[in-house]
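Subject: sequence -> C-alpha cells, single chain

Hey, anyone have a minute? Need the predicted structure for the following. Not urgent.
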Amino acid sequence: MEKIDGIWYMKGKAFNDKSRIKSWQEVVELVNKIGFLPFFANEVEGFSLEEMVAADFWWTGIASEDPWEWREIIARSKEVAYGKFFDKRAGFISKEWLPIFANARRDGYDFDSRYADGKASRREKMIMDFYMQENDEGDIVWKEDEILSTELKKLAGFGKDGAKNYPGIITSLQMNLYLVISDFRRRTNKKTGNEYGMAVSIMQPPEVIWGYDLVTSAYGEDSTKSWEKIYNQVLKLNPKVEEKDIIKIIGKKPS
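Reply:
Had a minute. Here:
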C-alpha cells in the first residue's frame, strides 16, 4: 500500500496484465516455487502478493477474485503456512522452507526448552500452555484444539484484568514459527447459532498441522546457515535489493 494525498492505495497490476495472479491456487503454486512470499508490499520491491494481483480486486468479498479472501482459503488448505512471518506482517511459507524458517527463528529450540532457558517470556508461555500438555511419560505433546483467537485470549489469561499486549505476544509466537494461522471462522451467536462479524483467525502450532518431524527437520543445521539460505533466496529473487531491506523483512542473523 502507498499513501497519496492522504489516501491509501493498493499497489498491484492492471486487470488486463497477463502476468497478474488470478487465483488462490496460483498463489500456492508461486509460494511453492519461490519458497516464501510476504502478503503486502514491503521494502523489497516486487516481493509481495499485493504487487502481483489486480489492485482493484481487494475487499470485494468475492472469494474467486479477492486476495483478502484468498488468505482464508489458503490458510484452511494447509498447502502452505500462513501467518505473521515477515517484519510482524503476514505472508506465506512453503512446507519445504518451513523447517528452514523454524530453525533460523527458533535457533533449534522447541518452545518448552526455549522457555526453560529463559529465551521466552511468561506471557508467551501463558499462550503456549494452552497447546501443550505432558503425556504419561512426561513428554510434551500437542493438543489439536481449534479455537478462535478471541477465545484464546480469554483462556490464556489476557484481557482487561489479565495480562496485556495479547496481539504483540501472538505476533511474536508467529514470527518464531511456534504458531501459524490455520483457519478463519466467524463468531457464533450463542442464542441463535448465527454467525456474525468479521472472520477471526485460528492459530495452531505448525507441528500439529504438518508433524513434528517435518517442522524440526532442519534443527541439525546451524541457525545462521538457515538464516543465510533465507537471505540468499531473497537476494536471488531481487539481486538489486539492499542488505538492510532484506534484514528488515527476514530479521537479523541469529547471534
